[in-house]
What we know:
The complex is a heterodimer of chains A (166) and B (280). Chain A is 11% helix and 40% strand. Chain A has 166 residues and is mostly beta strands. Chain A has one domain (32-165): Immunoglobulin-like (Sandwich). In chain A, the strands form two sheets. In chain A, strands 1, 2, 3, 4, 6 and 9 form a six-stranded antiparallel beta sheet that branches. Chain A is elongated and about 80 Å long. Chain B is 31% helix and 26% strand. With 280 residues, chain B is α+β, with helices and mostly antiparallel strands. In chain B, strand 4 and strand 5 (73-80) form a beta hairpin. Chain A binds chain B through residues 102-112, 114-115, 133, 135, and chain B through 48, 51, 55, 61, 79-81, 84-92. Strand 6 of chain A pairs parallel with strand 6 of chain B.
Amino acid sequence: MFNKTLLALSAAMIVIPASAENVPISGNVESKCVITTETNGVYGNPTPSKLSTLPADGGVVPIIRFDVVSANYYKAVIATPNDFSASPSLNDVVAWTGTTSVGEVSDALMSAYDTDKVVYNNYSEFDLTIAGSTWFKAESTAVYGYDKSFPSGNYNAVVEAECIAL
Amino acid sequence: MLLAYSSCSYSEITFEQSTNAASAGYNWVMTNILPEYAGLTVNGVVYRYTTVKATEDDMLVSVQNENALGDGYIFRSVDDWSGLPGNSINRVIPVGSIPLEAWGDGSISWTGTGDVTDATVIYSYQYDLCVDPQVDPSCAEYVAPVVALPAIEIVDPLQDEFIRLELEKKAALDDEDEEERQRLKKKDGKKKERLEVLLGSINTSLLAAQALAQAQLLLAMNNYIGAYYTTMPGGVYKETLTYGDTQLPDNNTAKRVSFAQQLLHEKMVSSQFNNLVSKP
Lengths: 166, 280
C-alpha cells in the first residue's frame, strides 16, 4: 500500500507539476504510566525536635501508586523531602532522612523492585519491569537542630514522584 | 445512506461486591458469600494478602474457587514468591461473567516456607432484578396477576342417569334390609323370650339356693329370735271354748231381696228374647 501511495503521488506531480500540498499528520501519545496518590502523609511529633511519618511516631506514611500498562518502559523516581514547603521560620538546621520502599504489589515479581532499587541522595529509582500496579511508601523524618524544639506552627513537605520513560 | 436502529429493553442491573470471604478463615463456602439471585454472575475477584518469608525461600500462594459444575477450579490465581522478599499483594482479576452456580468453595493455600497474613478476598458481581419481571412489581414488564375464575356448569346430580339408578338400587337394598331386620327382630324376640324363661327358672333356683344359704348363714350367726324355733311340748290341745246349740231364724228380708233380684233377672232375659223374636 505504501508503494501504491507513492505511485499516485508521482502521477499527480507529473500531471500538475505546479501544485503542491502539505498533508498534516497528527497523533497523541498518552502516558502508559499513571501516578496516583493513595494516601496523603501526616507528620507525627513524638518529641519536640522530631517530625516523622512513621505510625509508631503518630504519623501516616504517604503511599503513591504507579500503574504501568507495559513492562520495561518506565522507571519510578521518588524523592523524599529535604526541605519544608511551608513552615514557621527556622533558624537552625533540619536533618532529613527518608526511605522509599515497595508497600504493595499487584504481581509477586514486583516484590523484587525493593531489592533492585537505586538510591542516591533523597531519591529512589525503581525500574518498572512488570506491568501492573505498585504501591510505594515514602517515609520521611525531620530532626531539628541538636535536640532543639521545632517552633509551633504548620509544617508541610512534599514527596516528588515521577514516572520516567526509559 | 446510513440507517441506524437501536432498541432498548428495560433492565435493573445491579453491581455489588461481596464482603471479605477470608474474614473467618482461609476456606469459605460461596453460598455464604454471594446472594442467591437469579441470573447473578461474578465479574471479578479482588484479593490481597501479605507474605511473611525470607527472600531465599520458595513459596507459592494460590487463591482459588472449585468448579461446582465439574472438576478442577473455576478460578485460580497463583503467585510465585520464590526468591522474592515477602510483601503485600493486591490483585484485581476479571473473570468475565461466570454464573453463580459454577462457583464452588473458595480457599487460600500455599506451599513452601512462609506464611500468609491479612488476607482479603472480595467478589464483584452483577444481577438483574428483572430477569423474572414477576418477581418485583417495579419491573417494567411486570404483569399484575389476574385470577381467572373457571365457568361453573351447574348440574343437578339427581338428573344423572347413573346416580338415579344407584339411588333406586340403594332403596331396593334398604327395603330388603328392613325386611331382613324385621325377620331377625322377630326371631330374636322369640329367642329372647325363651331365654328369659330359662333364665327365670335358673334365677329362681339360684335365688332359692341363695335364700337358703343366707338363711343358714343368718342362723349360724344366731340373729334369729330363738322363740321361733323353740320346741313346743307335745300332747293334745283340746278346745276350751264351746258354743251351746240354738236355732237360727230365717232372714226373711234377705229372702225377699233375693227373690226380687231373681224376678228382675228373668224379666230382663225375657225382654231380650222377645225383642229378637219380634224382629222380622
